[in-house]
Design goal:
The chain is mainly α. It folds into 2 domains: about 220 residues, Fic-like fold (Orthogonal Bundle), CATH 1.10.3290; about 70 residues, Arc Repressor Mutant, subunit A, CATH 1.10.10.10. Strands 1-3-2 form a 3-stranded antiparallel sheet. Strand 2 and strand 3 form a beta hairpin. The radius of gyration is 34 Å and the shape is elongated.
Length: about 350
């Protein structure tokens, strides 16, 4: 049987034209790289660098514009608080600074109560080495919130750090911080304070990014346009939970304004209680002779807790006169003794007894 063999010419048939025959078009050169504008992004899929600090100011300016109404409301409330403290006894501002420094210590993990901070600040009462360090940090914040020059325009002076140009690396970081705050001059002080609070851990100025120093700096910046009655906006008194660092500048500013507003409201309520107590106390001591009762009222207004040695130092009276007047205040329901002991006793104003 004869097999059918394929045609040899058909088997060896070669196409008359191929991809390399004739003039090749640009589409045919698939193996060559494309035009420069078509080059793929060959960078590794890693997080890219964040914009510089100065570049972020524009985002904060936009956030300020978006929160303009709320910012105006908070600024008006702070103006009222500032004016009120200009006319109030000096001890009221002193007490609010103690409260804010105590809240700031909770933000850093030290958790120093306002009563303990007040006693330590007046008498240096402490229990252990670790506790002393926490009290020293909180005391530093209290002193910088209650008086002295602010951090603008000289941060090194505020932190009590000598700036040596070109020698100390810290000097360069402080200079960069001052330049950044000057570049943010178009921001309202409350907004600029929020910016400073969130950028402080990145500045490299504090010891290991110490947030307590950054908090004190930011709080003083927030009141830089005030009239000297209140030296800071009581942001921490309004709740430290709103100061978490996540989110865009608009979110950070919104939480900062909420904390500022709540802090101012709580500060005003506290002042209302102290004012009612002061009116009642001065009315009841009007018939008493001597200078000790009025001075004792001022001491009780300025400190959350008062001991007999502390009152003796603040009033300039003898120990016997102080103890006699404190016993009379307690009998009148003006103060409350907290220890229930015969020695090492402590008193505080009894605001509940005079509340409406």
């Amino acid at each position: 049987m004869k097999k059918h063999l394929p045609d040899r010419e058909a088997e060896n048939d070669i196409p008359s034209s191929g991809p390399y025959d004739g003039e090749a078009t640009e589409e045919d050169l698939w193996f060559l790289p494309g035009p420069p504008e078509d080059k793929p992004d060959l960078l590794a899929p890693l997080p890219r660098g964040e914009p510089g600090e100065h570049d972020q100011i524009e985002a904060w300016e936009k956030a300020q514009g978006a929160q303009a109404l709320h910012l105006a409301q908070v600024a008006a409330r702070f103006g009222a608080l500032d004016q009120r403290l200009r006319l109030a006894p000096k001890g009221c501002r002193h007490r609010l600074a103690l409260m804010e420094a105590s809240n700031l210590s909770w933000l850093t993990g030290d958790r120093v109560s306002v009563d303990r901070l007040g006693l330590w600040q007046a008498l240096r009462i402490s229990a252990s080495g670790d506790d002393t360090q926490a009290l020293q940090r909180a005391g530093w914040a209290f002193r910088h919130l209650s008086g002295g020059p602010g951090p603008e325009p000289d941060l090194a002076r505020f932190l009590n750090r000598r700036e040596v140009e070109g020698e100390d690396p810290l000097s360069d970081r402080v200079a960069a911080w001052n330049a950044l705050m000057q570049a943010a001059v178009n921001l309202h002080p409350i907004v600029r304070a929020c910016l400073a609070f969130h950028l402080w851990p990145l500045s490299g100025i504090g010891s290991e990014g110490d947030i307590l120093e950054g908090g004190a700096v930011s709080l003083r910046i927030s009141a830089s346009d005030g009239q000297g009655g209140m030296l800071f906006v009581p942001v921490l008194t309004g709740g430290a939970g709103r100061l978490r660092g996540g989110g865009e500048p608009a979110d950070k500013l919104r939480r900062w304004l909420q904390a500022s507003e709540q802090g101012i409201i709580r500060a005003m309520r506290h002042l209302d209680q102290l004012e009612r107590w002061e009116v009642t106390a001065r009315d009841r001591v009007a018939g008493l002779s001597g200078r000790t009762p009025p001075r004792l009222i001022e001491a009780l207004l300025g400190w959350p807790l008062v001991t007999a040695p502390m009152a003796e130092d603040l009033t300039g009276a003898s120990r016997a006169a102080v103890q006699r007047n404190l016993a009379w205040f307690q009998a009148q329901g003006l103060v409350q003794e907290l220890t229930g002991q015969g020695r090492f006793r402590m008193w505080r104003v009894a605001t509940r007894s005079v509340s409406p």
